[in-house]
Amino acid sequence: MLNRCLLVAVVFAVASAALQSRIQAQDVSPGERLQKRGIRILVEGDESAIPLAIEEMRRSSRASDLKITFVSKSTDGYNARIILTFGTGKTWDNDPNIRPGDIRFPMPFAFGTAVALTPDGKTVFTVAQSGNTAQSASVAVAREIARNLRAYAGVLTVSENTTDYLEHRSL
Question: 55-76, pLDDT tens digit by residue?
Answer without folding.
Answer: 988 888 887 777 888 998 888 8
